Each structure stands twice: as structure tokens, then as C-alpha cells.
Amino acid sequence: MKIALVSEGTYPYAMGGVSVWCEQLIKGMPDYRWDVVALTVDGSEQSVFPAPSNLGKVHSIPLWGARPPGRRFRRGPRHRPGASFTESYEVFLRALVTPLETTPRPTTPPPPLTGLKTPFAGQGAVSRSMFLLALRGMFEYAADGGDLSTALLSNQALTMMLDAWRDLRVDEVGPAPTVADAVEAAWLVEHMLRPLSATPVDADIVHSSMNGLATLVGMTAKWKHGTPLVMSEHGIYLRERYIAHLHDDASHPVRVLALSFFRQLAGAAYLITDVLAPHSMYNRRWQLHNGADPERMWTMYNGVEPEEFPAATTEPEVPTISYMGRVDPLKDLHTLIRAFALVRAEIPEARLRIFGGTPAVNRSYHQSCERLIEELGLVGAAVLEGRIGNAVDAYHAGSLVALTSISEGFPYTVVEAMACGRPTVCTNVGGVAEAVGDTGFVVPPRDYAAVAEACVKLLRDHELRSRLGGLARARVLEHFTLRRSLEMYRNVYEGLATPLEASPPPRHLRGQAQGRATIPTPLGETQQLQLNGDAR
């Protein structure tokens, strides 16, 4: 079996939880062949992971550099896109521009979509279905030799965008888009839709590591080859896009169009995916809220190899809070540093050690953390120590491990720290509370006073730290091992890839194989699943 694993800005070019998970899948299933399709910045990125022996090709699709290779484009007179593009693009714009709350319910079912599961009743379902149709139409335009990038940036496409806003947002309070706004929005859309122009990957299964742009790769494989699509979500892609745009300096219309694009794309991906594998119940609730079908969803927690994260047998000489992870605004290290200032007021000898690298795009955030440490008089007590060779050393360096993120999926750092027998103080985001259970403290995000109070309580009570640390490792051994995680994915893959006994189905039905699989849930129950085209 060959599986194409799709990443965006992660494996094999960047460190992080998603990259660790990708490597776990590939190395943990050596009897499968794997390809990786990586959405990259410009294609010049260098791998930071040694290639496993069963990893074949790594296909790079640059979103912001050169256009994807492998296609020969035809252009009409004056590069004017044809009718097949304009029809699809009109539907695409309607889905983006029409306010969600005014999307009408259908009086008749929407037209059938190849590879689309039964649309869900509810507001926005029609819009997502039509958005998926529009994406397919633009893919087929590109597959037939059309230059999709040029079409999206054409004068005709810009005029259509301005007309759609005028006709569909008649009660809009904010300003209408200018020509410059339309150019900027079209430029963003052109880059984000580049996977539709890339050659579809040829594999038995496509597994997208996240929602969003990465799912476009699976869509094109399904439309071209009928390939089954599995989608995991570590964090909630759509929620993180909204967080990222909170302080965006783009104009109102550009932000509306960009966020509408991500909202519609996330919903369309839920419609077309065969198996949804959220990494926590928190993620599952978000997916259901955004239109996912519960019949095709199974929560699959991340797992670790306990032997690689041995329990600590000693504690640091002084009370120490340890953080392990990248330096990133989503990790909200400002809250951790402010909390530590309160801890130091109670325990003057306490230390804060922040381990983890800083991506190039976050250098200014790293500098802001250093400035905050200086402003609060914590120089020498709170230190950003950079990347560390062995994560175990970072966990063992602390009396406790803290994570103060504002967005997470099911973070490896928490489970790894628990495996090392360290109690944790974490913010209640994503699946963190599901991981920690009663083995640590979970407090509201951005509440540095609550973080400080929990840290002080643990740092002052050796017996409590020891008891919670033992419970933490026991919880990992029972629920969050790598063996359990890999077993669940293997059963999903085998169920989807079981070949049909009859003659090959038509192209639009290919990949809807039937079979049975037993998928143990992370909490030990066993559920018999019928995995056909709906993964039931």
C-alpha cells in the first residue's frame, strides 16, 4: 500500500508536533510505502528529518514561489479565461461573498458531487457544496490545460469579484472593496489555490495532516483517481486562521474574503473526506460545529513511545518551571513570563527555563519575550535557552512543566512531560484537559495569575508533585502510547484500501472500497466499524 501524507509548513522541513506525528506514522508502519506532499513557501526548503527507508518521493508544491511544475498551460486570446472557468469562479465568489447568515436553505437538493458524501442539513451546507463544485470546476479547467493562475488574476476575474460584492452584500456596513483590494484578494486566492494546478498525487490513500490548503491535494487525487481521503486535525485550522487575522492590517473586504475562503474550504473538506480523525474531543466538537459528519469521525489521540521518555528520578536543585516547544505567539509565552514574575514574588529562588527553537518568522516575537523578561526584572532567572538536543532533558530540568498556549490540538509536549513523570500546569485549550486529566492543573488561557497560583502550589509541595507525576506517567501508559495510536491508523488504512471483489468501478466511484476494521478507541473500548465509502 502507498499512502501520500500531506503537510503544510511542517514535515519534513520544520520541527514541531505535526512533524513528529508524520515521522511516527512513516517509521511506525515500515510495511507501507509513503510519499509526502509538502506545501512549502518557495520550494527551496531543506529537510530537517533523515528520510526513512520506506519514504519514497517528497513532492513540494510552492505556494509563494515558482508555480507548480508539471503542467503545460494554454492561453486564449489576450489570456481571457474561458466559459468553464468563469462559471466555476462565479460560484466560488458567491460562496465567499454571500454573508453566511443569509445563505438560503435549499428547496431542492443541490446537484450531486462526485466523491461528496450526503450534504448535511443546516445553514451553510449548500454554500459549502457549491464551493466544492467550484473548486472541482477550477481543477478541471487547469487539468484541461487552462492557466488557472492567470485566470484568477485576469481583469475579467477582478471585475467579477467587485460585481459579486456589489450584488450580494447590499446591506454591508463596511466599505466596499476598491480595485486595489480586489487585486490583493485575488493575489492571495491565486497562491492558495495553486495545489489545484499541481499534478494529482498517485497513491492508494491520501492522508492530510490538517484541514485547509493541504486538503486540496486530497481533493484533486479523489477527482482524478477516486482516491480515499483521510484527514487529521491536530489544531483547529479555521480557528487558528481567525486568530492570525485578529491583528491583520489588511482592509476589511480583503479580510472578509480571506476568512470566508478558509471557512468554506474547511467545510468543503469535511464534506469530501472519507475518514475524519480529530486528535481530541475538543477538535471533534469544533468539526461538528463546522458541518462535519459524525458518522465518519473517530477521535485518535497522539501517542508517545514510553521508553523514549523515562521517568525522572531526581529534581532540579532549585524550584524550576520548564517549557518545551517552539517560540511562537500561539504558545503565549508572554503569559508564562508574567506568571513567573508572580511566582518569583512568592518563591525568590525559582527559575524559568524556556527550551525550543524560534522559526524565522517569529524572531520579533522572540525579541518581545526578551524585552518582557527585562521589563519585569527577571533577567538571569527566566532564560530562553534555544533548541535542545533531547527533549527529555528539558522535561527533567523542571520541577514541573508549563504550557500556556492559546491554541493547541493534542500537544506532544504535554504527553511527553507526563511520560517523564512531571506534573503539568497548562491552559485549557484544544485537547490539553483530555491529556492531563487529574494529573496536573488546567487553568484558563491568558490568565497569568491562575498559572502562577498553580505553579506556586506545585513548587511548594514535594509530595503533591511526586504523586501527580506518578499518576501522569501511568495515564500515558494506559491511554497515550504510540503502539495504540499506530494500531488505530493501520485499521483505518486497511479498511479503506480493501479492494472490491467485483470489476473496477467507474472512475467517480473508485476508492469506495468495502471492508471491516476494528478500531480501538483511545480510552480502551472497541468499536466494530463498517468502512465503506462513508467509513461507516
Task: Please describe what this structure looks like.
There is one protein chain. With 536 residues, the protein is α/β, with parallel strands linked by helices. Among the domains are: 77-189, no CATH class; 306-479, 3-Layer(aba) Sandwich (Rossmann fold). It is built from 18 helices and 14 strands. It has helices at 17-28, 83-97, 125-143, 148-152, 155-168, 179-192, 214-225, 237-244, 252-272, 281-289, 333-346, 363-375, 391-396, 412-419, 432-436, 448-459, 462-479, 482-497; strands at residues 2-8, 33-40, 55-62, 205-208, 229-233, 275-278, 320-324, 351-355, 382-386, 400-403, 424-427, 441-443, 516-520, 526-530. The chain has a six-stranded parallel β-sheet, with helices on both faces. The protein has a six-stranded parallel β-sheet with strand order 9-8-7-10-11-12, with helices on both faces. Helix 8 (237-244) packs antiparallel against helix 9 (252-272). The protein is globular, with a radius of gyration of 24 Å. Mean pLDDT is 86; it is low at 102-123 and 499-536.
What would the keywords be for this entry?
alpha/beta, Rossmann fold, 41% helix
Give the structure's gist in a few sentences.
The chain is of the alpha/beta class. It has helices spanning 17-28, 83-97, 125-143, 148-152, 155-168, 179-192, 214-225, 237-244, 252-272, 281-289, 333-346, 363-375, 391-396, 412-419, 432-436, 448-459, 462-479, 482-497, and strands spanning 2-8, 33-40, 55-62, 205-208, 229-233, 275-278, 320-324, 351-355, 382-386, 400-403, 424-427, 441-443, 516-520, 526-530. The longest helix has 21 residues, at 252-272.
